[in-house]
Amino acid sequence: MPSAETTPTSAYEPDLVAPTKNDEVAASGSELIGGPLGRRALVGTSWWTPVRIIALVAIGVFALGLVQKAPCYNGAWFFGASSQYTHACYSDIPHLYQGRGFADGLVPYFDKLPGDMQYLEYPVLTGVFMEVASWLTPGSGTIQDQEQWYWMVNAGMLMVCAAVIAVCVTRTHARRPWDGLLVALAPAFALTATINWDLLAVALTAAAMLMWSRGRSLAFGVLLGLATAAKLYPFLLLGPLLLLCWRAGRWREFGTALGGAIVSWAVVNLPVMLLAFEGWSKFYTFSQERGVDFGSFWLIMAQNSSDPLSTETVNTLATLLMLLCCAGVAALTLTAPRRPRFAQLAFLIVAAFIVTNKVYSPQYVLWLVPLAALARPKWRDFLIWQACEVAYFLGIWLYLAYTTSGDAHKGLPPDGYHWAIAVHLLGTLYLCAVVVRDILMPERDPVRRAGDDDPSGGVLDGAEDVFVFGPAAHPPRHAAHMTDGAYVQWGTNASGTAQSTTNE
């Protein structure tokens, strides 16, 4: 029998987990579209599969995010420094079209830019994305017309990335496709999607996690290497994966993933590194040289201190804090009563990197949304976190309006902005705390309560531990993991493939 928290949806998709059956917020929200999923619902028997529904929802919500930027598209980017902030529609994209030489046909990393920046300060694959968008931008009309077109072209390309992210998250947990709605409907996702080019790296990372969940370690490595060539943070996922493979003894798969990541990153970076090293290295030197910036607790400290810490000191302290977080994640991984799920650790390590960093830009929430949907697919906690991020999204633009409106000081003063920073930091830390609790108390984990082990874990799913510390080092010979009215015993069948047996 399926457990009490699962519902067969069709003859082709048995035993799918229906959030409206075990999530009070999802059940209440479903009243807007007819109520919770019933026993005889035929989802998946027609064209309207969960993947297609969620992809269309993601595109629709992304389009609403574009509409929210309409005041800027209609002139606020160009004719008023503060109006783009009071309308909360700022984007780097149109400003960098001319500011980074795309309007003049300069080649990123090879041609020097006018001013202090000298070279494009983005990783190579993101630079390629920006350059392709400039090729598709009409070169006629005023510079304002071209910037508008450049933003629109990028928005179209980023919309494809958003759809890819939603589809990948939907398919990563095979029995939980509806968790993809967390990504598709995330308000902070729609509001920040076109601030910068982060969605490219997020899409590649989501695709990599999908490949790992399917046991395709080489494809995972290749995609993660490409993601790291677009943004630095994806390489962090290799740390938790190393720990999980260590605990499960899956060294060959980890080695394959690591090799694929190194090769794909090198294929993208080496040509530029060898031919234009100074331009290629700008991203890395800029990251080290920039001072404390928006969204971080370091900014609160700096703006409330008569003698702020130097950039070098902040770099050192931020690195030490991140290393401390890594040590904590390692200890948690190797001592938890049950091996953590890959998505849980991926979320924790990326969140630690963001929280300890000297900048926490509003679009960084995009890095976390798909990981959060996989790590803690519970609507209440997800929406609490999203509310904090939306509050910060409004807070930063009102603060910038205050600083750019002259003597009028229209907007949010520094003290108010500091509270906005605190809210979004606390929101992220709250979700981290809930995920840690799920790891320490697996019976609270919504994924494992439904009878799964680690659906995003690929070869780790159902694997036995071979290296573990603490009380977990001496489990019963056949550990039983309780669910609601059922338990799952993990073992291997005659062919060595992990399998589970559910008992009522």
From TrEMBL:
Predominant location: membrane
Family the UniProt entry places it in: Belongs to the glycosyltransferase 87 family.
GO cellular component terms attached to this protein's record: plasma membrane
Descriptive protein name: DUF2029 domain-containing protein
Membrane topology: Multi-pass membrane protein
GO molecular function, one term: hexosyltransferase activity
Keywords, ordered alphabetically: Cell membrane, Membrane, Transferase, Transmembrane, Transmembrane helix
Organism in which the protein naturally occurs: Streptomyces dysideae
InterPro entries linked to this entry: GT87 (IPR018584), UCP010361 (IPR016570)
Transmembrane annotation, as ranges: 47-67, 119-137, 149-169, 181-212, 218-245, 257-277, 314-336, 342-361, 382-402, 417-440
Localization: Cell membrane
Domain of life: Bacteria
